[in-house]
Amino acid sequence: MTDMIDSTAPTGTMGTKGSELNENPERIEAFRTEVEQMKLRASSAEGERRLVVLGALALAAGLALAVFGGIMVQNTTENVAANQRAFMATGTLLGIALIIVGAALFVRFSLARYLRFWLIRLVHESRANTDRIVEAIERNRQP
Amino acid sequence: MSPELALEAPPALLQLEDVRAAYDNIEVLHGIDLAVPPGTVVALLGPNGAGKSTTLKVACGLMAPSAGKVLVAGRDMTGVRPEELARRGVITIPEGKGIFPNLSVKENLLMATYAGRPIGEVEDIAYTRFPRLKERRNQLAGTMSGGEQQMLAMARGLAADPAVLLLDELSMGLAPLVVEELYGIVAQIADAGVSILVVEQFARTVLGVADVAVIMVHGVVRRVGRPQEIEDELSDAYLGG
After folding, report:
1. Interchain contact A137–B (C-beta under 8 A)
2. Helix, strand or coil, per DSSP, at residue B115
3. Contact A43 B214 (CB under 8 A)
4. Chain B residues within 8 A of A27 when measuring between CB atoms
5. pLDDT tens-place string over residues A6-24
6. Mean predicted lDDT score pLDDT of chain B
7. Distance separating the N- and C-terminal Cα atoms of chain B
8. Residue B214: phi, psi to the nearest 5?
9. Burial class of residue B208 in the structure, from the number of CB atoms within 10 Å of its CB (0-12 exposed, 13-18 middle, 19+ buried)
């Protein structure tokens, strides 16, 4: 608003009706408080981007963990069976789980926007087709 | 504005920052900057197709901007649902009034109880401000005159206890005398401390109540200033001078 008022305007007032600014301070304060207390979600685009990044990170982490687990399983020398099971469980298997989840998140949300547009396009084309068919039928009906 | 006044000026209750909006691939708002400070009446003027109503739709959340921000009480509310804004006090009276023509006046007012006010209180507010509505409380809204329908629309808006009131083409389809009466009521509402953003094609009707006038042409803000300064430039703006 500071840019909106001509700099030659008289200082101290913003009303032009010869009176001071008409404010209702209690209502304005209540309004500001209610707005401040609103819980706002991040925009859907931002949320989706975060999930894509999370998926990629999970994928990378899962891969690293799986490889680490595999290496440790190969190189364990003491308490071989027990240690191998431990490294399998906490390394390789957990890593594979993270790879699956990460891949799912990455694919789902990186394709979401494209697929959404594609679906809308399909619906639009389908409706346009239906309209054309109806129009053709009605044209044929006319004598 | 002088730097001193800029420091003293309270933050705007409603602000649009570099807002762009489009219908499909056609951009209609090309970077709009607009602010409604507390207790002021801002008139958004311009010829047909300037983008005034689109600006209002973006401001109240009915339309998401393709770029830019909508700030409400200093907080970024871009993309927030319009009903969430309405519950907090950003009330819109749309072009075409937005009343339910098949419901009676009382039933229309009943729709305004979503804000939590009981119907008795809503009716009290409506009939105090618009006594004519009391006479017609059982009449179907669609059978009333244009001016009375507009009063009903405003009554519903006021019953929701607005902090910011957005009015879209109040004068549309109404006789000049009725328009004058309605803008007299708008002035009273402004005097009660409600901040108002009013979109109007017929500029001279609203300049008498506005504190700030903004001229929009082809989706951009052409001029901002006090109504007395703007009045002389209106013809040029509307006729493309």
Report:
1. no
2. helix
3. no
4. 89, 161, 163, 193-194
5. 333 333 333 334 344 556 7
6. 87
7. 27
8. -125, 125
9. middle
Among A2, A30, A34, select the one facing B9 at the smallest CB separation: A2
Is the CB of A117 inside 8 Å of chain B's CB atoms? no
Over residues B166-222, the pLDDT tens digits come to 999 988 888 888 888 889 888 888 888 889 999 988 788 888 889 999 999 999 999
From A12, A16, A28, residue closest to B227, measured CB to CB: A16
CATH entry 3.40.50.720 includes domain B1-89+196-241 = no
Residue in chain B nearest A42 by alpha carbon: B79
Chain B residues touching A22 at Cβ < 8 A: 39-40, 190-193
Q: What ranges in chain B are assigned the alpha helix state H?
A: 3-8, 52-60, 82-88, 105-110, 119-129, 131-135, 146-159, 176-191, 203-207, 227-231, 234-239
Sheet holding B26-36, edge to edge: B26-36, B14-23, B67-72, B75-76
- Tell me which residue of B200, B156, B210, B165 sits closest to B179, measured CA to CA: B200
Residue B31: which H helix or E strand, with range? Answer: strand B26-36
Write the DSSP symbol of residue B11: P
Q: Is the pLDDT of residue B26 over 50?
A: yes
